[in-house]
């Protein structure tokens, strides 16, 4: 018995293309432009042209942004219910025209009709339904936030319609208008979506779709009229966008590449795990950013598991994507096939074993057979490079500890899949994997209610879930920030006493690993108070001091594993010990800054420590109930090691307001205190020593904010950098330099912040910068 032909009819899709004479303009301000400069969109399965699509110009992007800007106030004024009705209409129309969308997507992309019909379309509709709900609830659930404004969105070719839904649905729900650029190879489903926007009553200018190559994306990224960029694509392009937007004030979210581990423990259901591998790496021909491309199998079952996997690969059917019984379709373009072939050939040359089942490769189109590679070292190119094709690299491990080490041996951190019949083992390993999504005994599960996004070079930001909505909003407290740093009125400071001939050197040292340390370069800098008198010396920190602090921070990883109650207790202790020495700190602030009421800043600092101690065990995650037999647990995890450049205004309160939330959530911190008034922070050493804070959890390096910020931003073992010293150029440089490792940044730009105002210096908006969400999918009874 064999499969008979069961092709899905393409009649409706071909008729739609013919209706447009197979030429498409741009969709701007609810109208279609003439198709002047065009390029061909082809079917990857046979290389035949489907249609001519317009190449947008810079002027076209200008017109699209202008239309979006005009439409945005009216779209907000429509209200949550009004936007919910439009989003609901879009969801219903996607369902109504699901067959047309699915067939068109298969023709344009090369993925199988089973995937477009059974996965892409239902999920796309689900996103619009889900976000219609968020629009309806926005005034209650996001009362302290507003829409960002005009959003530029750029998506890849692997999930054209689904990526559109992931991007446009939350943006519209929040009250933004969009300029959307589909991938050059796969623009047709976005153009069909533009038509249903007209049918659904989307107001003119709210959704604008501009097609073309990378020049169009570049114009969107660099456009001064766009308030946020949302990009899904390669890590290389993500770096370019991070550099291009540095200092612009644009909000940015990046969902980039991956090299995701697929871990099979010896007690796993091996047959189920084999099917999981097929779903993970051969789905969409492996052209999936979260594909489980690294198979890690426990040594005791390796041979048996790989034998089962090879047998399953032998039964995979490769062929026309429009056939309902086909498992693997065509790659999107010959260029992609050539790249995959090159990586596999390189692995073969390195001595790896290549297994490919016998397949009848069609004579025309872009095809590549399912491939299993064994014998690769952990540092081999094929084990570290994102192939973006149906290529799986397998290696073994002995213990769960080794499995975690191998899983995290990558610059990426997008997803992981764990297979074990021991839920205790799975739930122990899941938090240790550095990835934004972890599937237990399942793979490639997605839902609009559950956030998706990565760590490290897989980008930052989340798609879906409540955290995905925040990506398209700005806290109202940001609008209330002062244009310039707020400097407290000065009084007459008491001059510092001149040192006697036998005075002991009181130079404030660094604080690294819980100990005071002299600066590596042995240089010091004099601090002069408000009266002009000498107040004290501080060390001039440099690159090696940052290196030592980063090493100490990584050794203090136990702080991240401490209970939230324990972290809260330590912050309370710090506040208690600071209160005991309040007069001493007030006198120091008065001598340095000349503040009229330094006691106010000390008391506010104590209160801020209590505030974040209170949050430490209350900033909980969520449990989602997606449409599967199970739950998804959204965990708020610490970012890791955070470098913080503290403000000059309110030097004690500003320091505490930034360091405390980072510590409360389990991060380890390298803090650079106020360059002008650092003694407010160095005086804290003894407070910290008597407050049970583990060595290395907080490290303090004094010196030049500009120089130390550069070092932190370029350090590969620093996970995030915050800069809030009011330096516009310095903040831009932090964003630009962070692009290499794609670390997260939070900068104040050239504006100030009222550190006494809890809305500006506290709350969930601040805690979100100190955490990242990991979604762990836990099915029931499987």
From TrEMBL:
Residues 32-474, 530-747 form the Aldehyde dehydrogenase domain. The keyword Oxidoreductase applies. It comes from the Bacteria. Transmembrane segments: none annotated. Signal peptide: none annotated. Keywords: Oxidoreductase. The keyword Oxidoreductase applies. Pfam families: Aldedh. InterPro entries: Ald_DH/histidinol_DH, Ald_DH_C, Ald_DH_CS_CYS, Ald_DH_CS_GLU, Ald_DH_N, Aldehyde_DH, Aldehyde_DH_dom. Belongs to the aldehyde dehydrogenase family. This is Aldehyde dehydrogenase family protein. It comes from Massilia aquatica. The lineage of its organism: Bacteria, Pseudomonadati, Pseudomonadota, Betaproteobacteria, Burkholderiales.
């Amino acid at each position: 018995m064999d499969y008979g032909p069961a092709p899905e009819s393409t009649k409706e899709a071909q008729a739609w293309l013919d209706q447009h004479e197979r030429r498409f303009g741009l969709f701007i301000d609810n109208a279609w432009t003439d198709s002047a400069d065009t390029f061909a969109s082809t079917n990857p399965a046979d290389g035949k042209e489907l249609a001519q699509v317009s190449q947008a110009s810079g002027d076209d992007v200008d017109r699209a942004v202008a239309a979006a800007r005009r439409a945005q106030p009216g779209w907000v004024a429509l209200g949550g219910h009004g936007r919910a009705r439009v989003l609901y209409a879009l969801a219903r129309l996607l369902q109504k025209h699901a067959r047309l969308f699915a067939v068109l997507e298969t023709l344009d992309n090369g993925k199988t009709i089973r995937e477009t019909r059974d996965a892409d379309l239902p999920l796309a509709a689900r996103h619009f339904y889900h976000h219609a709900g968020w629009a309806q609830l926005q005034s209650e659930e996001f009362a302290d936030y507003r829409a960002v404004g005009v959003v530029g969105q750029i998506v890849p070719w692997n999930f054209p319609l689904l990526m559109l839904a992931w991007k446009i649905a939350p943006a519209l729900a929040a009250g933004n208008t969009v300029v959307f650029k589909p991938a050059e190879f796969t623009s047709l489903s976005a153009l069909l979506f533009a038509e249903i926007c007209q049918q659904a009553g989307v107001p003119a200018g709210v959704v604008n779709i501009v097609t073309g190559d990378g020049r169009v994306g570049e114009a969107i990224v660099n456009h001064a009229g766009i308030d946020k960029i949302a990009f899904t694509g390669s890590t290389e392009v993500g770096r370019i966008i991070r550099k291009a937007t540095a200092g612009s004030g644009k909000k940015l979210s990046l969902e980039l590449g991956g090299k995701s581990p697929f871990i099979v423990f010896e007690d796993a259901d091996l047959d189920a795990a084999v099917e999981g591998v097929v779903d993970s790496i051969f789905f969409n021909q492996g052209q999936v950013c979260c594909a489980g491309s690294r198979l890690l199998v426990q040594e005791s079952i390796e041979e048996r598991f790989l034998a089962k996997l090879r047998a399953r690969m032998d039964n995979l059917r490769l062929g026309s994507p429009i056939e309902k019984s086909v498992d693997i379709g065509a790659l999107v373009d010959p260029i992609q096939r050539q790249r995959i072939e090159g990586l596999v050939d390189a692995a073969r040359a390195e001595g790896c074993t290549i297994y490919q089942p016998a397949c009848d490769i069609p004579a025309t189109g872009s095809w590549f057979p399912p491939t299993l590679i064994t014998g690769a070292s952990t540092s081999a190119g094929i084990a570290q490079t994102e192939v973006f094709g149906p290529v799986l690299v397998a290696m073994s491990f002995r213990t769960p500890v080794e499995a975690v080490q191998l899983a995290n041996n990558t610059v990426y951190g997008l997803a992981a899949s764990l297979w074990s019949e021991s839920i205790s083992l799975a739930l122990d390993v899941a938090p240790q994997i550095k990835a934004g999504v972890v599937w237990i005994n399942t793979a490639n599960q997605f839902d609009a209610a559950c956030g998706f996004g990565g760590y490290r070079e897989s980008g930052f930001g989340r798609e879906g879930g409540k955290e995905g909505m925040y990506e398209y909003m700005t806290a109202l407290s940001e609008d209330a920030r002062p244009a310039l740093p707020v400097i407290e009125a000065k009084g007459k400071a008491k001059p510092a006493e001149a040192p006697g001939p036998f005075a002991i050197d009181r130079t404030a040292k660094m604080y690294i690993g819980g100990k005071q340390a002299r600066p590596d370069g042995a240089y010091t800098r004099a601090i002069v108070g408000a009266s002009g008198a000498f107040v004290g010396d501080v060390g001039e920190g440099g690159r090696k001091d940052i290196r030592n602090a980063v090493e100490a921070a990584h050794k203090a990883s136990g702080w991240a594993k401490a209970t939230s109650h324990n972290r809260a207790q330590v912050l309370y202790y710090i506040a208690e010990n600071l209160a005991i020495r309040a007069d001493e700190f007030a006198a120091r602030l008065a001598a340095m800054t000349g503040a009229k009421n330094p006691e106010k800043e000390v008391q506010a600092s104590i209160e801020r420590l209590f505030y974040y101690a209170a949050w430490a065990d209350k900033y909980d995650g969520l449990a989602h109930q997606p449409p599967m037999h199970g739950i998804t647990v959204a965990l708020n995890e610490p970012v890791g090691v955070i470098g913080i450049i503290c403000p000059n205004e309110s030097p004690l309160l500003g320091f505490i307001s930034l360091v405390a939330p980072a510590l409360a959530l389990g991060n380890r911190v390298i803090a650079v205190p106020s360059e002008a008034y650092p003694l407010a922070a160095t005086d804290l050493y003894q407070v910290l020593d008597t407050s049970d804070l583990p060595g290395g959890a907080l490290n303090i390096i004094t010196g030049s904010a500009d120089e130390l910020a550069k070092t932190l931003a370029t350090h590969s073992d620093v996970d995030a950098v915050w800069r809030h010293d009011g330096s516009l150029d310095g903040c831009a440089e932090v964003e630009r330099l962070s692009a290499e490792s794609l670390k997260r940044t939070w900068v104040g730009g050239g504006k100030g912040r009222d550190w006494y105002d809890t809305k500006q210096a506290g709350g969930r908006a601040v805690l979100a910068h100190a955490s990242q969400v990991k979604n762990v999918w836990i099915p029931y009874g499987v």
